[in-house]
Design a protein that fits this description.
The model has no long low-confidence stretch (mean pLDDT 95). The chain is built from no helices and eleven strands. The chain is mostly beta strands. Strands 2, 4, 5, 6, 9, 10 and 11 form a seven-stranded mixed β-sheet that branches. A four-stranded antiparallel β-sheet has the order 1-3-8-7, with no helix packed on it. Strand 7 and strand 8 form a beta hairpin. The chain is globular and about 40 Å long.
């Protein structure tokens, strides 16, 4: 599946952004999805994940209570609503997909086979 992330930008601390990730090429059903981010000089880290049905979600501790992952399977799109943004949230955000018949949350980059191109989020203090 091909993934296209969008919605990044520059905001001040405390602001909000909503990222989108549109999938194409194959049926979206059955794909568990995740958001990861990579800040300057840092490794790629898990942000949030959602199962193909949307019935299970998971978040990194650093974003819990501020970010919300969701999906619209009719539109082949997932979203990441980011509120109360902090300068530490500055990073390139990537969406990722994994096809699986097992309902599990995957939180490691190596668990995902398809990746979007990334969208830059910059939060200024």
């Amino acid at each position: 599946v091909q993934l296209q992330a969008s919605g990044g930008g520059s905001v001040q601390a405390g602001g909000s952004l909503r990222l989108s990730c549109a999938a194409s090429g194959r049926t979206f059903n059955g794909y568990h999805m995740g958001w990861f981010r990579q800040g300057p000089g840092k490794e790629r880290e898990f942000v949030a994940a959602i199962t193909w049905s949307g019935g299970m979600t998971a978040y990194a501790d650093s974003v819990k209570g501020r970010f919300t992952i969701s999906r619209d399977n009719a539109k082949n799109t997932i979203y990441l609503q980011m509120n109360s943004l902090k300068p530490d949230d500055t990073a390139v955000y990537y969406c990722a997909a994994r096809f699986s018949g097992i309902v599990l949350i995957f939180t490691t980059p190596g668990s995902y086979g398809d990746w979007g191109q990334g969208t830059q989020v910059t939060v200024s203090s």
